[in-house]
Specification:
six-stranded mixed beta sheet; 30 strands; 25% helix; alpha+beta; 29% strand; single chain; 628 residues; 15 helices; Immunoglobulin-like; Neutral Protease, domain 2
Length: 628
């Protein structure tokens, strides 16, 4: 149903004209969709990049009990949701997400699907609203979204209680969730949930297509995983009852790991096979609790090894974070995973983004997806352990984007994948050096885009991902990462950190959109960066800088592709000596098409070459000038 805001009283001093004027101060003013303009006009978002005086967001409390009994693939669950309407609108319906209908035949996948992966989807066995049982209407066309019309509208400030009993069968092919082996499952997106209702888009009714990612509210979760004895469960949140599920010796090792700087083998494969890890009740209940997180996921196995240790994520307070790994003993790289993940988590906390890891634990579970979840990572095993370290650093970087920041991955993936890719590069520089990190970044993140002449490769980053197919990966990963890194290079570390931390302080635990990020950075740094945002994010530009000539000691440059990228000028003099001169993206601010660089010194110039480093050039042939 259409979303209206007629009942909303516009705050004093706010009007659409005033807000439009405020956000359009420069000739480089950024394009803004009508719905976003209206959010600024209503005062839910502010032109200075802060949450507006009328900002709101809804949330829920989820109590979930789920049972798995491998090798049977059926997941059975019951849940109680208390959903709070903090919006100014009376809600006559609720949007619901049923992600496991992704596997139903006919689901709108992007890309090819394996028919063997089809299931009958999620089945709602019982359903209630405020304690009253109701009929759930399902059918062959019910996919990953459902609309629940409420018999009694949900007023602003009120809440509604929902109950679900449900079941579905896990998919058997390798993906973000499903069967890893006959007695190892990774279970994600497994429970019915209320969709996000926000101030600029209303209900999020975007179908999950197997490619786009997720957009969830910040909720509180109490999760109980029931599994047979000798199965261990790992999940988002704190294990609330370790003494009830772990045998005494294993319990002691687990508790010791919470303060250990080195890896503790909580359970070896031999321990698991011998039945020495869990209590011997027929069905064990593993209870986890997590507050103010956007999702929960879990894994179970009866033979996975379990390593654990901890790191100090916040030196100021000394707060430790538990780092755990669950894996097949044959996965050589996972025997190092507690150290890999712990090193990455500590580095990200202390350097970039430089905000202490906000949760109490993380678990890296061996699966197939190379995919992130709050406090969980589902990574495959790699023969190259350096690549394993690279992958886990990327997935852990998602802790801050999107889990801490609450961005809409489905519509604007550059706000999370782009940041994770930039952070992954900075981490690799610190661990492997600039040269090797740059080589890897160019290979995996840049050259697929810059060497692609197709029009889709140059679609603006701001293009919503749900209307893109070709080019979406470039716009989510490599291109925005280059933009963030170019901004860091231009502002310098200190000012860049001030802008990043200001944005994160204002918007963590909330739902920022791109304009919140842009305007916040402008405000905190005291720089009008709209020219930079427009050319990197809103225009169909690419990186292509050419040397047009050299006059004396002045190098004449042309920005053929329009992207304001940094570069080095490598000069070879007549005496054979070379010198390198760096220019940041600032050179293109006032002269977006042509620029000149006058080099210091006196020696005659024999040759000039442009070196973009990770900012690869689409036409390397015109990057060199030899003196005739």
């Amino acid at each position: 149903m259409p979303v209206t805001f007629r009942s909303f009283i516009m705050p004093l001093g706010f009007s659409l004209l005033a807000v439009t004027t405020a956000v359009a101060q420069s000739p480089d003013a950024l394009y803004m969709p009508q719905s976003v303009k209206e959010a600024y006009a209503r005062g839910t978002r502010s032109p200075d990049g802060r949450p507006g005086p009328r900002y709101w967001q809804n949330r829920g409390r989820y109590e979930i009990e789920v049972t798995v009994q491998p090798p049977a693939r059926t997941v059975r669950g019951t849940e109680r949701i208390t959903y709070m309407n903090n919006s100014p609108d009376t809600l006559r319906m609720l949007g619901l997400k049923l992600f496991m209908n992704e596997h139903k035949a006919g689901s709108p996948h992007i890309g090819a699907t394996n028919p063997a992966d089809n299931t009958s989807g999620i089945h709602i066995d019982a359903f209630s609203v405020n304690g009253l049982q109701q009929q759930w209407r399902d059918g062959p066309l019910a996919l990953t979204n459902a609309a629940l019309r409420l018999q009694a509208p949900l007023a602003p400030g009120d809440s509604v209680r929902l109950g679900f009993d449900w079941h579905y069968d896990l998919a058997t092919t390798h993906g973000r969730e499903g069967v890893v082996d006959s007695t190892t499952f990774f279970v994600a997106y497994f429970y019915p949930r209320v969709s996000v209702y926000d101030d600029y888009n209303g209900w999020d009714m975007m179908d999950f297509t197997g490619s786009l990612e997720f957009y969830n509210d910040f909720n509180d979760y109490a999760l109980t995983v029931r599994a047979p004895r000798n199965y261990v469960a790992w999940a988002t949140g704190t294990l609330a009852n370790p003494a009830d599920v772990l045998a005494p010796a294993a319990l002691g090792r687990f508790q010791a790991s919470l303060a250990s700087d080195t890896t503790v083998h909580v359970a070896t494969r031999a321990d698991m096979i011998a039945g020495r890890i869990t209590r011997q009740d027929t069905l064990l209940e593993w209870r986890f609790a997590a507050s103010n997180v956007s999702d929960v996921a879990f894994g179970v196995s009866d033979h996975y090894a379990w390593d654990a240790g901890s790191v100090v994520a916040d030196p100021a307070s000394g707060r430790r974070v538990s780092v755990q790994a669950a894996f097949a003993d044959s996965a050589e790289d996972f025997h190092h995973m507690v150290r890999f993940a712990g090193d990455a988590l500590a580095w990200l906390s202390r350097n970039w983004p430089g905000v202490p890891y906000p949760y109490e634990k993380t678990t890296v579970f061996q699966g197939f997806a190379d995919m992130e979840y709050p406090m969980m990572v589902n990574d495959e095993a790699f023969a190259d352990t350096s690549f394993s370290r690279f992958v886990v650093a990327h997935e852990l970087a998602h802790t801050w984007f999107p889990f801490y920041m609450g961005t809409n991955e489905s519509r604007y993936p550059f706000m999370d994948e782009g940041w994770a890719t930039a952070l992954e590069y900075l981490y690799n520089v610190s661990t492997t050096g600039v040269e090797r990190a740059g080589e890897s970044f160019r290979q995996f993140r840049v050259q697929g885009w810059i060497r692609d002449p197709a029009p889709s490769a140059d679609m603006p980053i701001i293009t919503p991902a749900d209307i893109m197919r070709a080019g979406m990966g470039n716009n989510a990963y490599g291109k925005p990462a280059l933009a963030y890194l170019a901004l860091k290079d231009m502002l310098g570390d200190s000012l860049f950190a001030r802008g990043l931390h200001g944005y994160m302080e204002r918007w963590h635990g909330k739902h920022p959109i791109p304009w919140d990020f842009f305007y916040s950075f402008n405000d905190v740094t005291g720089r009008n960066l709209d020219w930079f945002w427009r050319r990197w994010y809103f225009e169909p530009n690419y990186i292509d800088i050419a040397v047009r000539g050299v006059r004396g000691r002045t190098v004449e440059l042309a920005n053929v592709g329009g992207m304001p990228a940094p570069f080095d000028i490598v000069v070879t003099f007549d005496d054979g000596k070379t010198e390198r001169f760096h220019r940041t993206a600032e050179i293109w601010r006032d002269h977006p098409v042509t620029a000149t660089v006058t080099l210091p010194g006196k020696g005659a110039i024999r040759k000039v070459t442009l070196d973009g480093g990770i900012w690869m050039d689409a036409t390397p042939a015109d990057n060199t000038w030899p003196r005739q």
